[in-house]
Amino acid sequence: MNKLKNVDKELINEFRNLPINYWDFEGEDTKELTHGLHNYPAVMIYPISRNIISIVKKYQKIDTLLDPFMGSATVLVEGKLAGLKEVYGTDLNPLSILLAKVKTTVLEESELDKKVLELKERIEEIYCKNSIILESINSYVENNKIDITAKKGWGEEAHIILRDFLKKNNSDLRVPNFKNMGYWFKPRVILELQLLKNVILNIQQEDYRNFFLVCFSETVRYVCNTRNSEFKLFRMEKEKIKDFAPDVKTEFYKFLERNVKKIKEFSKRCESDCSVNIEFEDARVLNSIPDNSIDLMITSPPYGDSKTTVAYGQFSRPSLWWLDLKYIEPSNIHKVDNNLLGGKKAKKDFNYELQSETLKKSIEIIKEKDLNRAREVYSFYVDLDKSIQTITKKMKLNSYQFWVVGNRTVKEEKLLTDRIIVELGRQYGLVEVCDIPRSIPNKVMPSKNSPTNEVGKTVTTMTNEHIVVLRKER
């Protein structure tokens, strides 16, 4: 069986000698290279994984790296930049899969420039060809007295209204038909997005097509009627929608120009041939990863169930409506959060069975106040426990796991996830090496959230995290 060297003492000594604020990275540019290609909620900033890899490599050989909750692929990017042989990443959000593939793919500079030029030329051509419908759609809406701020009518029937408009203008353009499309997008915005999408989908080479789709995805979010300061899906006020007139093509070009620079810089920095393995897979399963094969795991799991913490699925929904990605049917796009940790609630009469006394005490306190919330919290940790068990099977003996976690509060009870992970891990042969606290001035999260999803009821989100270091002992 593959076995690494136990370097607990060396790591503890290294961490102990670091400055107290070493892991805070306040004021650091966290969007360099492909880390800045696309916005994503609750991102673990890259200096954390970059420094973990650098420190562990001093004392232990690292060939294989895993992030089972890869999100926007921060850890995978850093593994590739560090010149590791293989990096593995999994997630159950289809948008995460697209972002991970693009962020870790090297593009040849001259070929990229050529593809960008061809793309822009084709966009200008198709805009010119469709200039009449683009210039007349707003007057058509006004003349037919269509209220573009209403959920009924335009909100629910945008595809029908646009289909009739396009037919009258002898246009063969086809627009999408997802639920409440008009509620989230204005008429001209829909037409422009479809024109851009058609051009991108005609690109034959997958790596370049995917790169442009990431630029398109960022554009979709920016021109959507959502409040961009929110990760959960909230529409802007009606009066703001009336005045909201995004220039879709200009915004797309802006993101394209930014991302071209970032992917070029990343491609220049990748000197080694690192194998990147990305799978749409559950961290509770991980069938794609061989047992006893991983040297190092770095991850930042969800803080809790997505419905009451960071709604990754809600954040991704506008992009998923437009991208036609694999792994998910259009009718299931609204269910992404249901498939993540804690997505399926425990029974009302659930019996506590997890191996953590810290969690048990908290569940009992929450249960006295709100049984429903206790069920949600317990469900999340049941799934987290399964993930710890599965991940550990994939690790070599004496390999290290770095869990970057935050301790959330539910019903005024602080859930000590750092301690809970340590306690859950013992039954699977994990021993605690150390627990490193860090403040999170750069974490991409709202300063307040609404854990109950009730308007006006917010709590301040966490401002510090713990880096829990575990070693697989058996």
From TrEMBL:
Gene3D superfamilies per UniProt: Vaccinia Virus protein VP39
GO-annotated biological processes: DNA restriction-modification system; methylation
Assigned EC number: 2.1.1.113
UniProt keyword Magnesium present: no
Organism annotation: Caloranaerobacter azorensis DSM 13643
Gene Ontology MF annotations: DNA binding; site-specific DNA-methyltransferase (cytosine-N4-specific) activity
Protein name per the record: site-specific DNA-methyltransferase (cytosine-N(4)-specific)
Keywords: Methyltransferase, Restriction system, S-adenosyl-L-methionine, Transferase
Protein family per UniProt: Belongs to the N(4)/N(6)-methyltransferase family. N(4) subfamily.
Uppermost EC category: transferase
SUPFAM superfamilies given in the database record: S-adenosyl-L-methionine-dependent methyltransferases (SSF53335)
